[in-house]
Give the backbone structure.
Amino acid sequence: MTSTTDQVANLADLAATTLLRFATAGSVDDGKSTLVGRLLHDSKSVLTDQMEAVEAVSAARGQEAPDLALLTDGLRAEREQGITIDVAYRYFATARRRFILADTPGHVQYTRNMVTGASTADLAVVLVDARNGVIEQTRRHAAVAALLRVPHVVLAVNKMDLVGYEESVFAAIAEEFTAYASDLGVPEITAIPISALAGDNVVEPSANMDWYGGPTVLEHLETVPVSHDLTACPARFPVQYVIRPQSAEHPDYRGYAGQIASGVLRVGEAVTVLPSGRTSTIVGIDGLGESVDIAWAPQSVTLRLADDIDISRGDLIAPSASAPATTQDVEATVCHVADQPLAVGARVLLKHTTRTVKAIVKEIPSRLTLDDLSQHPNPGQLVANDIGRVVVRTAEPLALDAYADSRRTGSFLLIDPADGTTLAAGMAGESFASKAETTVQADEEGWDF
């Protein structure tokens, strides 16, 4: 009979070998949508009616060959302007792996969309036009990938057919980008010369670049080692809902429902409820209509505790031996995604897992300058697409992990309390991985803490 430890290990191994989440990014007209269309087409992941529709639209435009970018640019405005505006999610599979792809926009004003697409990615494909090389937007995309702790980055040097497939052009771009991304702390960078339009090194090896001996884009996507083993991290259980049927069948049932963000929980384990700090023991785990002795991320379960503790949505249950510290002073890096600026003194809502609390932006120590990775001190505010450091004071304690340790429990959103607009996406702790690592009186509205 398979042990529960083996079950957890097998689940992690299965996820690691069968699913890859990745995002594409690049400047305008670098060919992201064409690359994605080529991947889908050449891997035979396009339905016949989809291809017929693309051929019809391409013919109506007077194009001799089908425009594969139309496979991903689904909005009318995208097709009319020939650009990508929104994040387009695509699902496809080969015999070796399943893929969830986020095709993100290239315009500077849509950098915030890349944050959305890359936030759950295991790999980012950054496209560069071989004629233009590394530009500011390339650096921006590399910085976002590094901030979001995306473990694998592929530099796809596109349009090699327009520079005569010259090795020296590719080598110079790869060297510059690799040096920049390494300074940001990106742990793995793979450079691949391609022509998305002609299909060189996308799915099939190129006959025009015999000097390149590395993998094609698809081959790399199929073979890159990606770990989804959330069970290796300390257990974190954000409470979503308290279940109390108070029925004749279950008169005293009290369960706490939610999705395990990381780690493994077991019956009999001592746990701490945060931010209250109260302790108890897990006496039951209900999942999929039956009681189990063990559960692991990302399963959705209901926990039953030995003691009647005041627990509500937004509380965090964690093993007492590895419970995170709570804080009301959050130091983090944020990507500002709203059109309205974020200024010192701004009153916001901070949403962390299932918990939302009032907060005030106390400081904006610096804004990142992407050209040389320098920090512009005390900018006073952040505007759309800025990346900067902030210090936020919350009305109630939060159980935050460092983003470097957990992308789920180390991330948060800053929200406009007036209309619910998302202002910024935040990552607690240090900005970039190092190379070595790869009380104020309340005002009348109660917003000063």
User: Anything to note?
Assistant: The chain has a mean pLDDT of 84. The first helix runs from residue 4 to 18.
